[in-house]
Amino acid sequence: MTLQANDFIDRAAAYGYDFYAGVPCSFLTPFINTVIDSDRLTYVSAANEGDAVALAAGQALAGKRAVAMMQNSGLGNAVSPLTSLNWVFRLPILLIVTWRGAAEVADEPQHELMGRITPDMLDTMEIPWEIFPDQADAVDDALARAEAHMNDTGRPYALVMKKGTVAPAELMRTEPPTQSRGAITFRPAPPRHPQLTRRDALAHLVAHTAVADSVVIASTGFAGRELYAIEDRPNHLYMVGSMGCAPLLGLGLAMARPDLKVYVVDGDGAALMRLGAMSTLAAYGPTNLYHLLLDNGMHESTGGQATVSSGLSFAAIAAAAGYRTTYEGYERATIDQMLAGSSQGPAFSHLHIQAGTDKASLPRPAASPVEVKQRLMAHIGGDS
C-alpha cells in the first residue's frame, strides 16, 4: 500500500516537526501539498534550497525540529549552509531530498549527473541518509534513526525520496503568503559621503538593544568580528561562512520565538548573494524581525573588491518586496527609525557606512561557533 503523506507527517509531529521549508519538486508534490494544506503545520516557500536550510536552522537555534525539502538538483544551492552553518554550528535539521535521475528511473537529461552523484554528495558533506520510507510501518524506525543521529551529533540527517513514494494529494490551499502592509516608509538617502563606520553603527545598535529579550545575528566577515569587539554578549551570534544566510537564520528564529526581538546585521555583498531572501522575509517575516544592512560598497574582509551596491538601493528593493517599514540613510537615526517600528515589522534599514577597518587589530571570537551557539540557546531557553 502506497504511503500517505500524513502517515509520515503525523509520526514526525511526535518528534516536534511542525515547521517545513522548501522548494517544490514533482516527486514531492503530494507530500508538500499535504504540508501546505495542514492547519497545524507551518510551511515557508523558500526562494532557493539553501534558504530553506537556513530557515530550518533558525528553528533549530530555537531548540525546535524542522524539515527542509528540496529536489536533489537543489543540493548544489544548499551546500554552503549545510557545510558552513549547520555543520559548523551543529544545528540539526531533517532533509527530505528527492532523487531525480536515479539509475532505475528514466528522467530528463538535466538530472542525469546529479542523479548519479546525489549519494556521494551527501556522503561527502557527512550527512547520513537513507531512502524515504514507502510504507507506514517503516516511518517510525526511520525517524528514530534520524533523531538518534541528531541527538548524538547535532547535525542534519537526510531522507532521499524516490518517485511515486507518496500517494497523490491535490493542493487545496493555493493562496499566496501575504501580510497586511503598513505604509511604506522608504526615504531616499541624500547623495553624500558616509560618515559612520561599521563600528559606529554596531555600537549604536548594541546600546539600543536589550540583552534579555533580543538576539543579534551578525553576517559573516567583519560584521561579526566588529560586533564581538564592541561587546561579547550572550544574545549575540557571529556567523561564519554561509554567506547571505543570516537573514534566513534570523527569520527561522523569529518565527519560532515571537517573544524575542531578532536583529539581523547584513552586508551589501552578503545581501546581493541571496537577494531572493528579502522577498521571503517580506512575505513571512513577523513583527519581531529587524533587518539592518550596512553598505560600504565592497567585500572588505577579502581585500576591498567593489560590489555593485553603488548602483542600487536595498531600501527600495525592500519596499518593493513588501517589508512593512523601510529606511535608507547615512545617520544613526536610520537605525533608530527601524527600532522604533516595533509593531511594524519586518523592518528594514539600509545604512550607508564608510569603508575601512583595521583588520590587524580586529579580534576573532575566542569561543568556537558551537560554544557561541550553545551560549545563545542557553540564554534564550532553547536548549531545554
Task: Please outline what is shown here.
The protein has 14 helices and 14 strands.
Map the helices and strands.
Elements: H1 5-13, E1 19-22, H2 29-37, E2 42-45, H3 49-61, E3 67-71, H4 75-89, E4 94-98, H5 112-124, E5 129-131, H6 139-153, E6 157-161, H7 198-207, E7 214-218, H8 222-230, E8 236-238, H9 246-256, E9 261-267, H10 268-273, H11 277-284, E10 289-295, E11 298-299, E12 305-306, H12 314-321, E13 325-329, H13 333-340, E14 347-352, H14 369-380
Parallel strand pairs: 1-2, 1-3, 3-4, 4-6, 5-6, 7-8, 7-9, 9-10, 10-14, 13-14
Antiparallel strand pairs: 11-12
Helix pairs in contact: 3-4, 3-9, 7-8, 9-11
Question: What would you say this structure looks like, in words?
Answer:
It is a single chain. The longest helix has 15 residues, at 75-89. The protein has two domains: 5-161, Thiamin diphosphate (ThDP)-binding fold, Pyr/PP domains (Rossmann fold); 198-380, Thiamin diphosphate (ThDP)-binding fold, Pyr/PP domains (Rossmann fold), CATH 3.40.50.970. The protein has a six-stranded parallel sheet, sandwiched between helices. The protein is built from 14 helices and 14 strands. The two termini are 39 Å apart. The chain has helices at 5-13, 29-37, 49-61, 75-89, 112-124, 139-153, 198-207, 222-230, 246-256, 268-273, 277-284, 314-321, 333-340, 369-380; strands at 19-22, 42-45, 67-71, 94-98, 129-131, 157-161, 214-218, 236-238, 261-267, 289-295, 298-299, 305-306, 325-329, 347-352. By secondary structure, it is of the alpha/beta class. The radius of gyration is 21 Å and the shape is globular.
